[in-house]
C-alpha cells in the first residue's frame, strides 16, 4: 500500500503550534552565531591544554567576544532574514563581522599589553573552530528555512505592487505562490483614469486590494505583510526611487523585479525569490536583530530608570493629587509603531476638562496647574511613560507621539509625516534634543521636527540612542516646554 502524502496544511499548523516563525529562525541563527564563539574557545582549550576550563584572562576574552559579536553582527547586517534567504550573501557579511570581532579583541589585547597572557595555538584553534562552526550552523539554518517553505509553515507574505502597463503579473503571482509565497495584497502603482476599468491581475488573491500605492501606504497599519515586490511599468520613465518613494514611509522591505537599468540598483546584488531575480530596493529601519537589541536596551535601561525614579514618581503623585481635583495619571490615545494606536500615560498637569476637541498647550495656558507647570517645564510629567517603554508600546528613544488630531492635520499637510511611524514612539528623540520640542504653532516648526525624526529613523544605531539619552539630560529644562 502506497504511503499517504503528508498534508501540507496540517504540517503548517503543526509547525505554527510550535511557535516556529521567521523571527524565531533569525533569533536561532543569532544564538548559534554567538555559541560558535563560545564553542570554538572551549574546543581550542581542550585541544591545547587537554582541559575545558579556561583561566580568568581567557574567560574575559571569551566574554568580550560575545559582547562584541552581539553588537557587530547586527551593525554589519549579518544577522537578518535576508541573510537566511541568501546564505552566501549572508555568510559574506558574517565573515566580515567575524573578522571585526577578533580584530577588536586583538586591538584591546595590544592596548592593554596582555597579548603574552594568551597561547597563540589556543587563539588560532579558537578562530578556526569558531568560524567553521559559524559556517556550518548558518548553512543548516538556511536549509531549515528552505524546508519550512517547502512544507508550507514559513510562506512569506507578499504585497505585489505593479505598474499599469506591466505584463505577466498573473504568471509572476502564480509562480511565487507555487514557490512558497502568499500574495496577501495587490497594489497598483496608479489609480486607473476615469472610464478605464480597474485591472484585476490576480483574481485568486484573497487579500485586500487598494486603489493606489498612496492608499496602501496610508492604510498599511491594517496589513500583515513581510515584504513587497515591485514590478514597475517598463513604459514609466521615472527613476525607481521616485516610483517607490511613498514606500519609504512604512516599515517594509521592498524588492524590485528590474525591467532595465536604474541608478538606484547600482552596487546591489540580485537574489532569487522563487527563482525570479529581484534586487532589494529598500529595507525596514530595523532588522529583526536590531529590533531585539533596541528592545533589550529599552528593557534594561527602562526598568533601571523606572526603579530609580519610583520615589520621585510617588512624591509627584501626591503633589498632583493635593494641587487640584482629578486623577494622578492622564491617559490618551496616540498612534504608535506602524500607526497602530496605543494608550500613553503622563502625570496630569492640567485641570480636568472636556478633551473632545484637542487644543495644544501653549505658553501661559490657564488650564495648566501650579504643579503641572513645574512638571512640564522639567518634563517630569513624562515619567509614567517609562511604563509604556517597559511594556513595549514605546521606546526610550524615538519620534515623540503626537495627539491623533495633530496626526490627521499634519499628515494631510506633510507627505513624509507618516514616515515617523516606522519606529516606536519615544520618551525623547533627535528632534527634542535639537530644540524642536514643545508647541508646534507653525507648519515650519513641524517640518523641522519631522526632518529630525526621519533623520533618526533612517540612521538608527545603538550609539545614536545612547548619544540622544545623554543629550536629553542636558536639555530637560528648555524654554519650549510648558
Distance between the termini: 80 Å
Strand order of the largest sheet: 2-1-3-4-6-5
Largest sheet: 6 strands, mixed
Shape: flat
- Count of domains: 3
| Annotation field: number of helices | 16
As residue ranges, the low-confidence spans are 1-19
The oligomeric state of the chains shown is single chain
User: What level of helicity do the residues show?
Assistant: 40-55%
Mean pLDDT score: 81
Tell me the structural class: alpha/beta
CA radius of gyration is: 26 Å
Strand proportion, as a percent range, falls in 5-15%
Write the H/E string, N to C: HHHHHHEHEHEHEEEHEEHHEHEHHH
Number of strands: 10
Protein name: Undecaprenyl-phosphate glucose phosphotransferase
Main location: membrane
Domain Bacterial sugar transferase: 294-476
Family: Belongs to the bacterial sugar transferase family.
Structure, described:
With about 475 residues, the protein is of the alpha/beta class. The chain has three domains: about 10-150, no CATH class; about 155-285, Rossmann fold, CATH 3.40.50; about 290-475, no CATH class. Helices cover about 50% and strands about 10% of the residues. The protein has 16 helices and ten strands. The chain has helices at about 10-15, 20-50, 55-75, 80-85, 85-110, 120-150, 170-180, 215-220, 240-245, 290-325, 370-380, 385-390, 405-415, 430-435, 445-460, 460-475, and strands at about 155-160, 180-190, 225-230, 255, 270-275, 275-280, 330-335, 340-345, 395, 425-430. Helix 2 runs antiparallel to helix 3, helix 3 packs across helix 5 and helix 10 packs antiparallel against helix 12. The protein is flat, with a radius of gyration of 26 Å.
